[in-house]
Structure formats: C-alpha cells, structure tokens
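Design a sequence for this backbone.
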C-alpha cells in the first residue's frame, strides 16, 4: 500500500514524500507552486505509484536526483525518466554502483533492468533549480563514495540526507565503498554545522532535526 505524508511547508512549495518498495525508501517530490516544475528525490521503486503522484499533482518533473546509487534508491529511475522525460542526476563517485544495478538486485534475489545512463553529474555546492526553488548539493561520502545531501531553504530550512543520517542512526558502511570514518566526518563536518532547527528528511524512516541528532544520536555523542 502506498502511504503518503503531506507537508504544508511553504506557500511556494509542493512537497510530498512516500515510502516505496520492499526497502521502504522515502521518495520525495518537490515542486514550485507557481511554475509546477518539480524534482524527484530517490525514485527507488514502484514507478507507477510515483508517476501517479506526478499526474495527480499536475507537475512537470525536470530531474530525478539521487542521494546515492544503492538499488533501493534508483530502482524506478529508468521508468520514471522514460515516462516524464526528466534528466537523471547523480554524483560521479557512485556511477560504479549505478551501473551495477542488476548485480545489486541479484544479491537480494531480485531482477532489475540495465539503468539509463545519468544525463549529468552533480558536484558539491552545486545548485539545482526548479521553478523559483533551489536545492544545494552537499557531498557527504561514507555510506557510499558519492553520497550527497540536498539542502533547501524554501522548505524550511530542510535537508534530505538519504542514508547518511537517520533518526538516532547513521547509514551502514560495510557495503561497496563505505567508510565509517568518512560518514562520521561528513555528518560532523557538514551536517552538524547547520542550524539545530534544520529539518532532516532521511532516506528511510521518520524525519528529525539537526539539533535532535546532535543531542541524541548515539553515533554522534
């Protein structure tokens, strides 16, 4: 069953997030209220469900952007891009994972098509513009070499952290290219430098704040 969480963040923003697939990856759709230009963060599975949300909201998806390239965050990207015409964006350090989507799926007894090549790579501190809204890319290696977070002021302030930072947890570092030292450095050096009231929207599970994780996350105390 598709579970939707609706957030009324700002009058210029449309924001909807919903878990998809057996791994319950949080897929988020953000759109400019005025222009209806949109982005999708981590279209990980259930392409038809994602596309139904796009159609319901009547938005034009410009980009499918990815916090990293594990299969549960990229599984629906090909279908979504083919149906909407959106560009696929990724950090270059995760290309090796992205290109090996079928191999990743096979390890879990699943099947996946070869992915559509990314249209372009994104870099640290790059801005992604859609309508009158923007995201800033923050490179946070550790969970994967190319893990990135997306900071947004129109939505709060807010940060979409993928699998780098969770409520009371951090991403695992025992998979391809993972590093415990790097993920801790990324969180402390980049994420915890943000204001305590910054909303944190992880790739799985409930939202939290930078302040709560600074005070309560057992990996960071």
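Sequence:
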């Amino acid at each position: 069953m598709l579970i939707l969480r609706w957030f009324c963040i700002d009058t210029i923003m449309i924001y909807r997030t919903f878990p998809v697939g057996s791994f319950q990856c949080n897929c988020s759709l953000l759109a400019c209220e005025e222009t209806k230009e949109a982005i999708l963060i981590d279209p990980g599975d259930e392409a038809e469900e994602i596309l139904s949300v796009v159609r319901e909201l009547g938005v034009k998806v410009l980009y499918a952007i990815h916090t990293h390239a594990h299969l549960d965050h990229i599984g629906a990207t090909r279908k979504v891009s083919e149906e909407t015409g959106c560009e696929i964006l990724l950090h270059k350090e995760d290309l090796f994972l992205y290109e090996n989507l079928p191999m990743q799926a096979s390890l879990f007894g699943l099947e996946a098509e070869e992915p559509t090549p990314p249209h372009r790579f994104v870099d640290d501190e790059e801005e992604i513009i859609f309508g009158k809204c923007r995201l800033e890319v923050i490179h946070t290696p550790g969970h994967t070499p190319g893990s990135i977070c997306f900071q947004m002021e129109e939505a709060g302030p807010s940060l979409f952290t993928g699998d780098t930072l969770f409520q009371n947890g951090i991403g695992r570092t025992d998979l391809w290219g993972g590093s415990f030292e790097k993920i801790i450095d990324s969180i402390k050096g980049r994420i915890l430098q943000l204001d305590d009231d910054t909303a944190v929207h992880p790739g799985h599970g409930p939202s939290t704040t930078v302040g709560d994780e600074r005070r309560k996350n057992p990996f960071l105390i």
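The domain at 5-216 is CATH 3.60.15.10 (Metallo-beta-lactamase; Chain A).
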